[in-house]
Design a protein that fits this description.
The protein is α+β, with helices and mostly antiparallel strands and 430 residues long. The chain has a single domain, classed as 3-Layer(aba) Sandwich (Beta-lactamase). The chain is built from 13 helices and twelve strands. It has an eight-stranded antiparallel beta sheet with strand order 3-2-1-12-11-10-9-8, with helices on both faces. Strands 4-7 form a two-stranded antiparallel sheet. Strands 5-6 form a two-stranded antiparallel sheet. The longest helix is centred in the first third of the chain and has 16 residues. It is globular.
């Protein structure tokens, strides 16, 4: 999976933590010239078939030994080229499941990585926010065509920007994670706590970058605004709303809401980053306890492998989250043949999200073609490969394509499972 990162003005601060790998979906929208004469097919071939799986539960049995060996080899080989000391990964299919952990959770102590460790999931949080939004729309408590100024005053173009524009990243609002004053403040002191209004103050001081609906541009501001909408409509804080709408229905007992917990529940992995003024390639910073409140509804959730495997399949099928009609609407929300829909992306039938927060990288994807869920957690957000002017570790394998660690492992697992995550449309037969 090629990682596309937005370009930021950087000094020693490096890139901001929500430069999220979800930008891959921007690339997916750009179709090569040879595909222009093709009839573009929807990313999800038959949403009704996918939502029918909500009535089923995968068996709690191990996958065949031969496949387990293939998956284990894929992880080990990908980890060799990744800038992370530890990986947790799991796969759930109609034939069974597989989970594992590799490497160390704490390079200083040598403590090993373990299945069940908590990590920060970054922008995978956006899919939770989008799911809650869809639930409120399904219940008739709001419409995706509502303008944001019905809920939050003072947003530029707020009378034109709809909740749908915010959810599919076409609002034209700049991301606060690209605002120089925010970057200066955040990297000077990563322990600072932010409120959603603090974040909006950074974001909305500038002008929109394009008219609403004109194009795609990934912005964390969009999801913060949606979080405020959810709070207003439900009358609850974001954690309470997520608990009642998503965590409790799915039994996600090891997942905590996005309202800015600086400490992770035990057990957890340490997280290393090259972001921040103090980090160098020779000495990455430990970002485990950096205050994540700046990510909020755009990236603040903490979770575990088992919870994310349950959630990933529910994100795809709608199981215990959305009715068939609402879920099918979401599965049809992607541009053709691939791209970003209602708070999640789709490439080659794989739907889900990636996430980066300083110290952590996560992927959660569901294959609508094969009813397969894949989750990868990494204890680093450091990219590796041919990454241009990105900071990398001294032993960086420059011959590889640039990728974040969890994304690199997920890419390898998708190949091992026989359905590669690919952004390149199939060329027409000659």
């Amino acid at each position: 999976m090629t990682t596309i990162r937005t370009q930021y003005k950087r000094a020693s601060r490096h890139r901001p933590g929500l430069s999220i790998c979800a930008m891959i979906f921007a690339l997916a929208v750009s179709v090569p010239a040879h595909a222009q004469d093709q009839v573009l097919q929807s990313c999800v071939t038959d949403p009704a078939v996918v939502t029918a799986r909500a009535a089923t539960t995968p068996p709690d049995t191990p996958l065949p030994v031969a496949l387990v060996r293939t998956l284990d080899t894929a992880v080990r080989e990908a980890l060799d080229g990744a800038a992370a000391s530890g990986i947790i990964a799991g796969v759930v299919t109609p034939e069974g499941s597989w989970r594992g952990a590799w490497g160390v959770a704490d390079p200083e102590t040598g403590a090993v990585m373990e299945v069940g460790m908590h990590t920060r999931i970054g922008s995978v949080t956006k899919t939770f926010t989008g799911t809650a939004l869809m639930q409120l729309a399904e219940a008739g408590k709001l419409s995706l065509e509502d303008s944001i100024d019905q809920y939050v005053p003072g947003v530029p173009n707020g009378d034109v920007i709809t909740l749908r524009h915010l959810a599919n990243m076409t609002s034209g609002l700049p991301s606060y994670t690209q605002a120089e004053p925010f970057l200066d403040q955040f990297f000077a002191d990563p322990s600072l706590h932010y409120t959603p209004q603090n974040l909006l103050d950074f974001a909305l001081s500038g002008s929109p970058i394009f008219a609403p609906g004109a194009r795609f541009d990934y912005s964390n501001t969009n999801t913060v605004l949606l979080g405020l909408v959810i709070e207003q409509v439900t009358g609850q804080d974001i954690d309470t709303a997520f608990n009642s709408m998503i965590l409790e229905p799915l039994g996600l007992t090891e997942t905590t809401g996005p309202d800015g917990a600086a400490d992770l529940p035990e057990p957890y992995s340490q997280g290393l980053t090259l972001q921040g003024d103090a980090a160098t390639p020779e000495a990455p910073s430990n970002a485990t306890h950096w205050d994540p409140s700046w990510a909020w509804a755009a990236g603040g959730i903490i979770s575990t492998l088992d919870d994310l495997l349950v959630y990933g399949r529910a994100l795809g099928t709608g199981k215990d989250l959305l009715g068939a009609e609402a879920q099918q609407e979401r599965l049809r929300s992607f541009p053709e043949p691939a791209g970003y829909g209602i708070a999640m992306g789709c490439v080659n039938g794989w739907i889900g999200h990636t996430g980066e927060l300083p110290g952590y990288n996560t992927t959660v994807f569901y294959d609508t073609t094969t009813d397969t869920t894949v989750v990868v957690q990494a204890n680093s957000d450091i990219p590796s490969g041919d990454c241009g002017d990105e900071d990398v570790l001294p032993d960086n394998p420059g011959e590889l394509a640039c990728n974040a660690p969890a994304s690199r492992v997920f890419d390898a697992l998708s190949v091992a499972l026989g359905h590669p995550f690919s952004m390149t449309p199939t060329a027409p037969a000659e």
